[in-house]
Design brief:
Helix content: 25-40%
Number of helices: 4
Structural class: alpha+beta
Strand order of the largest sheet: 1-4
CATH architecture: 2-Layer Sandwich
Number of domains: 1
Radius of gyration: 12 Å
Largest sheet: 2 strands, antiparallel
Number of strands: 4
Strand content: 5-15%
Order of helices and strands: EHEHHEEH
Distance between the termini: 21 Å
CATH topology: Alpha-Beta Plaits
């Protein structure tokens, strides 16, 4: 099970979650993906195939946008697919 970044992240793209992640599964990030990709993204995304479900990103998120996949609020369940789709590009 992976974690999912949801709607509160839109427009914020705070980097605390990226810095807390031990497996580099949160993107885009300027240092690894380029500033242009970071600027163009609507939000940050967690790669469901790389996430180890450690939860390190959850407490550092300043907008409480990150949830374990099975705990994503019903009104934000679409973000499960949005996170997965980001990595299909």
């Amino acid at each position: 099970m992976a974690h999912v970044i949801t709607e509160p992240c839109i427009g914020t793209k705070d980097r605390a979650c990226v810095e807390a992640c031990p497996v580099d599964c949160i993107h885009p990030y300027p240092e690894s993906d380029g500033q242009e990709a970071f600027d163009a993204a609507e939000q940050l995304y967690i790669d469901p195939d790389t996430c180890i479900d450690c939860g390190a990103c959850v407490p550092v998120c300043p907008v409480s946008a990150i949830f374990p996949m099975d705990e994503v609020p019903e009104n934000m369940r679409e973000y499960i697919q949005k996170n997965a789709d980001y990595y299909k590009k």
